Amino acid sequence: MNTRELIETAQCLFKGYKGLLAMDESNPTCNKRFAALGIPQTKEARRAYREMIVTTNCLGNCISGAILYDETIRQNTKDGIPFIKILIADGIIPGIKVDTGAKNMAGHPGEKITGGLEGLPGRLKEYAQMGARFAKWRAVFAIGDGIPGKDCIEANAAALAEYAALCQQAGLVPIVELEVLMAGEHAIETCAVVTEEVLHAVFNHLFIKKVLLEGMILKPNMVAPGLTCPVQKTEEEVAYATVNCLRRCVPAAVSGIAFLPGGQAPELATARLNAMNASFKWKLPWPLAFSFTRALQQPALDIWKGNDANVRCAQAALYHRAKCGQSARLGEYEISMEKRGEDIHIVKYKGVHKLSDTLEKHIVTL
Questions:
Q1: If exposure means fewest CB atoms within 10 Å of the residue's CB, which of 34, 320, 324, 342 is most exposed?
Q2: pLDDT tops 90 at residue 82
Q3: Quick count: other Cβ atoms within 10 Å of Cβ 236?
Q4: C-alpha 209 chain-centroid distance
Q5: For 338-355, what is each residue's pLDDT tens digit?
């Protein structure tokens, strides 16, 4: 394990007030999103969509790293250039999802355990040779009647720690992703209690496995009410609850925290991250960034719809969302910034597949 390289890579992923683009959806998940928009669920359609993402001009201005899927890291542009080379050329560090998904936990109805440890050292070695410099593993915890239970929390925490230790041995920075799901009617206080319990368990197991905290990244959920909770909270209230939880549980040595959106609308996830940085940016031991999937990609996917003529507009929408995320890291995001995103959609829906000169200037100067 090269301690210095791990720390440098982890730090690089938070430089320039940038964030992470999670484009690591499994093929079934990607196909499901394609089906909803009438896009063919084929390997070529997935490749074309991912090419649209990685070839977005100047994306590296606000994205520091991209989390890829096994199929994606092996794909090329239509001209035969590997995606991973495109990303590196734009200053974006390539990473890779290495878990094999959450499965039902035997004897624990409603709870999941994430698999993928079997054969992991060999896969990590291969990905590192391909150019990946970090990896990701996700554990999920549903809130319900009596869940998550201690067995579920401990089993997933142990797996996360084992994965993190194996990553660092292979020279890859581990992203430790723990998601307390937002689905449900639970109050923000319940989310806080469960998130704290999960964080304590995870860091206990990371300590046992001697994981280098300076050479890892935490990817947690925000502490927020359930999506169907009748009492929602302001961005400032979510920011306070989230930061308060992290202060109690996350060691200062951790290199940085990159939030997952958890099903929130892109604007809401961005506004909540902005509230955290606007109020607490200079009061915390770690930077707070974003690691979004749909909250970055969905507007672009809605525009693209599998049509090559829509690529430029879709890329503009993707860049806009990434730039909004960067503004949120600075604590400078404002809802008025969404007007530019609306303009991109207006151009598309009028049937004009070339951006106006005004929008082109926005993209250059953002």
A1: 342
A2: yes
A3: 14
A4: 25
A5: 876 555 544 444 443 344
**Does the predicted model carry a pTM greater than 0.85?**
yes
Tell me how far apart the alpha carbons of residues 10 and 60 are, in angstroms, rounded to a whole number.
Answer: 16
User: What CATH number did the domain enclosing 80 receive?
Assistant: 3.20.20.70
> Computed from CA positions of residues 18, 23, 29, 34, in that sequence, does the dihedral angle turn out positive or negative?
positive
Q: Which two tokens stand for residue 35?
A: 């089906």
Neighbours of 18 (CB within 10 A): 24
Q: Which of 111, 177, 179, 235 is catalytic?
A: 177
Let me know if 283 is a catalytic residue: no
If one counts the domains in the chain, the total is 1
What DSSP state is assigned to residue 185?
A: S
Based on the number of CB atoms within 10 Å of its own CB, is 146 exposed (0-12), middle (13-18) or buried (19 or more)? exposed
Distance of CA 7 to CAs 4, 63, 106, 197, Å? Answer: 5, 19, 37, 27
* Token digits of residue 290: 């974003």
pLDDT at 346: 41
Q: What is the C-alpha to C-alpha distance for residues 27 and 135, in angstroms, rounded to an integer?
A: 18
Residue 106 structural domain: 3-365
Active-site position among 18, 136, 219, 348:
219
Strands (E), the chain: 19-22, 63-68, 93-97, 102-104, 112-114, 134-141, 173-180, 217-220, 257-259, 288-292
3-state SS class at 102:
strand
